[in-house]
Design goal:
It is a single chain. The protein has about 400 residues and is an alpha+beta fold. It has three domains: about 1-75, no CATH class; about 120-150 and about 315-390, Phosphorylase Kinase, domain 1 (2-Layer Sandwich), CATH 3.30.200.180; about 155-310, Muramoyl-pentapeptide Carboxypeptidase, domain 2, CATH 3.30.1380. It is about 35% helix and about 20% strand. It is built from twelve helices and 15 strands. The protein has helices at about 15-20, 30-60, 65-85, 95-115, 125-130, 185-205, 215-230, 235, 275-280, 295, 315-320, 325-330; strands spanning about 120, 135-140, 165, 175, 185, 210, 250-260, 260-265, 285-290, 300-310, 340-345, 350-355, 360-370, 375, 380-390. The strands form four sheets. Strands 4, 6, 7, 8, 9 and 10 form a six-stranded mixed sheet that branches. A five-stranded antiparallel sheet has the order 1-11-12-15-14. A two-stranded antiparallel ribbon has the order 2-13. The protein is elongated and about 130 Å long.
Length: about 400
């Protein structure tokens, strides 16, 4: 006869029966084992449920944290709006002004990067591109004059101060000059005025100082000797007499005039002043001595040394990351029969070509008869003509 109050002998896995516990009897081993297994199974199930719940709520990338943070920011923003709704806006702090300047500078750099100068080899001759042409008889000595003359350790400057005037005769109030003796070619000063006016308008700074412009041969003699007496690397920083770009009147060195720190702080093109190095090409200037080109230019990097070459040459040189030496050498491959055509960032098209000296007295150079053009010597072998096509 079966006892309804005792577990069945063959019901090991019959939980309702086996889980019964009788106070007056010892708990059988199989009952203890069943209880432990049951608790283990329930624990595993609970762990699994909690694990998947956390994964669904938070996700692999911590979305719940991000949502919480966003909510907190939104609440803080609403609170700030409510607290300042009745308060008049205050002047921006110095830090906010600096951040605004920095953002403006970054935008300027980005705009500069987006501007492209397109180079193409013309399928038409200069005459077909420019219309009526005429021939000029150029004195060979004229190869040593013009905005594109190459002056370096191999090619000397042949004239000395004939084309310069004191910058004080033309300068604006957006920058300083070291003294009244600082001089440049007048067209270079006018281009520099435009650049510095724009710089002051954007950044509110007018403490850039032109420390040096034109330097005579005699001044270069004294400067070079002084550098030799004080440095073993004189020729890496100062040109030998007669071979300095400063003698051309197309070059200037920048410095800073900070009264709170003392005068004569070196200009290194950092901070807001980097705008000048990044945008000078839009005004006809190039940074003449750049890093990585020392073996070509013969000089160390000089972020303060600006050379005027005019448009569109300055934009082309800067965008290509080349030196004036490399640019002049490239132009020697283009003639009036097969000129270089440059489409500038503003859509203007230019026709550029080179004519080699073919006589020791005069050389015939083709130029447009009805269009504006410039003609410059390269300082050693010929002439470079630049004419605007769409005019």
């Amino acid at each position: 006869m079966n006892n309804n109050n005792s577990p069945k002998k063959n019901g090991f896995f019959h939980l309702p029966e086996i889980m019964r516990i009788y106070p007056d009897k010892p708990v059988p081993f199989r009952t203890q084992l069943a209880v432990m297994c049951t608790m283990l199974i329930i624990s595993c199930l609970l762990f699994t449920v909690v694990f998947f719940q956390q994964k669904i709520v938070h996700g692999d990338s911590g979305a719940a944290v991000q949502i919480s943070t966003a909510d907190e920011r939104s609440a803080a923003a609403r609170s700030e709006e409510n607290s300042t709704a009745s308060v008049a806006p205050s002047e921006p702090s110095q830090k906010e002004k600096q951040e605004s300047k920095q953002e403006s500078k970054q935008e300027s750099k980005q705009e500069s990067k987006e501007e492209k100068v397109i180079e193409t080899e013309a399928s038409e001759s200069a005459g077909e591109l420019l219309g009526n042409m005429k021939t000029l008889d150029m004195d060979v000595a004229a190869i040593h004059a013009g905005e594109l003359i190459l002056v370096n350790k191999d090619y000397s400057c042949r004239y000395d101060g004939e084309n310069v005037e004191p910058m004080g005769n033309y300068k604006t109030d957006s920058y300083l000059v070291l003294d009244y003796d600082v001089a440049l070619a007048p067209d270079v000063t006018k281009a520099f005025n435009n650049m510095m006016d724009d710089f002051e308008s954007q950044f509110g700074e007018n403490d850039v100082m032109v420390a040096c412009g034109y330097r005579s041969y005699d001044m270069q003699v004294r400067l070079f000797k002084n550098e030799q007496d004080n440095s073993d690397e004189a020729e890496q920083w100062v040109a030998p007499p007669g071979y300095s770009e400063h003698q051309t009147g197309f070059v200037l060195d920048l410095d800073l005039n900070k009264l709170e720190k003392g005068n004569g702080i070196d200009f290194d093109g950092s901070g807001d002043y980097g705008w000048l190095n990044n945008n000078c090409q839009d005004y006809g200037f190039i940074v003449r001595y750049i890093a990585g080109k020392e073996d070509i230019t013969g000089y160390n990097e000089e972020p303060w040394h600006f050379r005027y070459v005019g448009l569109p040459h300055s934009r082309f040189i800067t965008e290509k990351g080349i030196t004036l030496e490399e640019y002049i050498d490239m132009l020697h491959g283009f003639t009036a029969d097969k000129p270089l055509v440059i489409t500038d960032s503003d859509g203007s098209r230019y026709c550029i070509y080179y004519t080699a000296v073919n006589d020791w007295n005069t050389t015939e150079v083709e130029v447009p008869a009805d269009r504006k053009y410039t003609i410059s010597g390269d300082n050693y072998s010929g002439f470079i003509v630049t004419a605007k096509i769409d005019e």
